[in-house]
Amino acid sequence: MSAPHFALLPHRSVIAVDGDDRVEFLQGLISNDTTKVAPGRAVWAALLTPQGRFLNDMFVVDGGNGTLLLETERERAPALAKKLNLYKLRSKVTVEDRSAAMDVAVIFGAAAEKALPIDGAISFVDPRLADLGVRVLAPTGQAAALLSAGGLAEAPVDDYDALRLSLGAPDGSRDLPVEKALLLESGFDELNGVDWKKGCYMGQELTARTKYRGLVRKRLFPVRIEGTLPVSGTTIELDGQDVGELRSGAGKRAIAMLRLDAARGGGALTAGGARIVPEFPAWMRLPEPSDP
Fold first, then answer.
1. Long-range pairs for 111-116: beta carbons < 8 A, 24 or more residues apart
2. Are residues 147 and 221 in the same domain?
3. What is the pTM for the complete model shown?
4. From the first residue on, what is the mean pLDDT of each consecutive set of 10 residues in the chain (292 residues)?
5. Do both 17 and 99 map to the same domain?
């Protein structure tokens, strides 16, 4: 799809964090630097367990009037809001689940950023990759009308998902098993989801150790499917050995967690009777095969 289109993302919603301590409060919890958030400029980040395992992903954006908005998974937003409230302690912050009040959309296609700004909505270029387009947060029921008024045509969400899958960008718990996934196995470093200079946050120790000791031995990859798409969670095999697992997918595209040696080896990877062909997106940085 060349000309910019938009798609509604009904599986995403918004949490608002307000109050004098909002920046410092999030700074001590999530993997990216909250001080970098500015009007029109968002950061992508994760909340981790104390052991450094994935809990939630989020885009943090300036909502105006001293509010930070967290765009996150709709189904898991109430639990995230509850957890953030537990962490408040004496911080001067309020946390509000705005799932019922706001919708999320995305503009994608060639030169999607030229659609900015969007009157009546909050919008920002996806901080992971510009090719992923522009995220839009709008009052419930108004996103489609606002974007159509700007001359954009609506596309099925599957069209956007096909783009995301081809680029290898994870989509929350569809690709990142909760309390299991590690950020550096999931592309958060190259996709601008971790700030290495910001100081402490929950789960930082394992994340930093994984980076500086070179402990990454498997990664999420975009893959092509030759055959019928297996269900998410299907084991990927090489010569009868387990070398990975399929995550989200659609049609002939998917994301898979694969051992690096298997992804690079050129052997016949299979899952549920289908051939799995890993791809290496330009943004991905992998250690040399000889690295310890």
1. 111/4, 112/4, 114/4, 115/4, 115/147, 115/150, 115/152, 116/40
2. no
3. 0.95
4. 88 97 97 96 97 97 96 97 94 96 96 92 97 98 96 96 97 98 97 95 94 90 98 97 98 97 95 97 86 46
5. yes
